[in-house]
Amino acid sequence: MKYDKAFKELQEIVDKLQSGEVSLDSLTKDIKKAKELLTTCKNQLRNIELAISEEE
């Protein structure tokens, strides 16, 4: 998954949680998905950071 798509999905989950639109049943699913998306974003940012530092 690309960073932009993962970040967008993560933002949608955050917006849903902040608005109170999430049911208790879907809360666990949403938090698990958010954790996966956050890991994806962090990994991609780390890879970019490594690539930049290797070029220096």
Could you state the order of secondary-structure elements as H and E? HH
Number of β-strand runs: 0
Helix content: over 70%
Structural shape: elongated
Output mean pLDDT. 92
Total tally of structural domains: 1
Q: Which tags fit this structure?
A:
mainly alpha, elongated, single chain
Question: Could you walk me through the main structural features you see in this protein, from its secondary elements to its overall organization?
Answer:
The structure is a single chain. By secondary structure, the chain is mainly alpha-helical. It has one domain. It is 88% helix and 0% strand. The chain contains two helices and no strands. The protein has helices at 3-19, 24-55.
Q: What's this entry about, in short?
A:
With 56 residues, the protein is mostly helical. 88% of the residues lie in helices and 0% in strands.
SSE blueprint:
Blueprint: H1 3-19, H2 24-55
